[in-house]
Amino acid sequence: MKKIILTLLALTLSVSSCKKVEVEETETPPITEEITTEEVAVEATPDSATVAKAWADYATPSKAHEMLAKDTGTWDAEMTFWMPESPEPQKATSVATYKMILDGKYQEGVFKGDMWGMAFEGRGTTAYDNASKEFIATWIDNMGTGMMVSRGQYDEASKTLTFNGAMVDPVTGKEKKVKEVITYIDDNTQKMEMFDIDANGKEFKNMEINSKRRK
Question: Which residues, if any, are the signal sequence (predicted)?
């Protein structure tokens, strides 16, 4: 009996030893990596003087704002519209009044006129964001309940300010892309062209406004 017990004990120790060897053979030491300062990007916190200067620059009107301020005054506009289903253009007139607001930081435009026998009124604001380095425009009018927001850049060579934006088409209920191009012909003459852009990127010119400043 004692011999049997010793045999079982030896067998148990043997199995236990095998399991221990298997564990030791399969276990891998943890991988440790030394993290150097070059591998860790630490964003430095700007000091108060840097923060103050950044906000001062952000709030100070720039040359782009001076360009917008040149539009201040009253303009007479001849408007032409094109519909996709009709090649014949439709005409309308309006009067636009521009002024700079909030200490010269934004341009506000008020448009009033007659469109297809109905009184028309629209309001637009144009900003130049000193931080993002772009123009931002909004538009609302009494012929809808939405707002169009667009962003653009000015090209000195062609004297054009090109905006790209989006609005919801009330017919389809889906958002569509739009493009607006303002050409500064001279200090008293401007041309604005509006385009619809379909899903394939094809542009359709639906409006042109030729404006002259009142003297």
Answer: 1-19
